[in-house]
Amino acid sequence: MTKSASCGPAILTEPVDNRWVFGALRLWIDPEKTPTVGRTPDYRFSLANERTFLAWIRTGLALIAGGLGVAQFLPPLPVPHLREIMAIVLLVLGGLVALRAVDHWARTERAMRLGQELPGSRFPAVLAVAVALGAVALIVAVLIQAAG
What we know:
There is one protein chain. The N terminus is likely disordered. The protein has one domain. α2 runs antiparallel to α3. By secondary structure, it is mostly helical. It is built from 4 helices and 2 strands.
């Protein structure tokens, strides 16, 4: 335990160990400075992994653009706050897709270097279900508006 460096009474605090957070971020942001593991994979596989990463980034950007479009251009729907909920969900999904993309890229690159099986992911299925549920919500809102 260490004492707080304040002018008031001494407060005992636990030191915070953020090394694992910064280590994980370093893998994402600056892979050249992290220790290299395993063998360098065939460059074609690394480039394919990078293309997959970029495809996921485009998907995240499309979801974010869709969320902004819903928030700015969709007229109020008959269900209260449905427009705002849909916009927030799309924006959050876009951010999650971007974070998931970089994590998956790093884990796949590591697995290739170590000669391990590539990491599996349920995220594409979860994303597909979320988008489908959003489409169903829009269909219901359109039908309610048409009936009213």
